Amino acid sequence: MDRLDKNQIKNLLPHREPMLLIEELYDIKKLTSATGVVQVKKDSFFVQGHFPDQPVMPGVLIVEAFGQTAAALTAHGIDKETYKNKLVFLMGVEKARFRNPVMPDCKLLLKIEAIRSHGKVWKYKGEAFVKDKKMADAIWSATIVDKK
């Protein structure tokens, strides 16, 4: 399967609205890379008060969207029994650069790549684009843990 819609993503992630940020996952290469899509809208919860006269998607939520894309890629690629009753938690962000503000009424594309895995710990890198313009990039790590 090369493309996941929002309902299929909900089967992989525990996130729900309004915190489920990614709408779609495509160009999936099992446990290696994928592209996530965030539709940034004028009525998105995160732009309504950030900032009223010039709404911008907060950088921390761009990092969250990177993490959701990586978690969906990983959950989609591993055995369902292995992932059953597990969660993917962000462990650390080594680098995050916010190059341009992400404004409402755009499609934010998150191109992510798994660069290393060691047991339950994964390391990823990602770049965020609106059209062909790079908006942000980051390197982060996450771990798979048991649900409590």
Features:
about 150 residues; alpha+beta; 7 strands
Provide a descriptive summary of the structure in words.
With 148 residues, the chain is an alpha+beta fold. The protein has a single domain (3-146), classed as Thiol Ester Dehydrase, Chain A (Roll). It is built from 3 helices and 7 strands; from the N terminus they run E-H-E-E-H-H-E-E-E-E. The chain has helices at 6-10, 59-77, 80-83; strands spanning 3-4, 24-29, 33-40, 86-98, 106-118, 121-130, 133-146. A 7-stranded antiparallel beta sheet has the order 1-2-3-5-6-7-4. The relative contact order is 0.20. The model has no long low-confidence stretch (mean pLDDT 94).
Percentage of residues assigned to helices: 10-25%
The fraction of residues assigned to DSSP E strands is: 35-45%
Name the CATH superfamily assignment.
Answer: Hotdog Thioesterase
What's the mean pLDDT score? 94
Count of helical stretches: 3
Structural class: alpha+beta
Fold-level CATH name: Thiol Ester Dehydrase, Chain A
Instruction: Report on the biggest sheet.
Output: 7 strands, antiparallel
Uncertain runs with pLDDT below 50, 5 residues or more?
A: none
Global morphology? globular
Number of domains: 1
Number of strands: 7
Strand and helix layout:
Blueprint: E1 3-4, H1 6-10, E2 24-29, E3 33-40, H2 59-77, H3 80-83, E4 86-98, E5 106-118, E6 121-130, E7 133-146
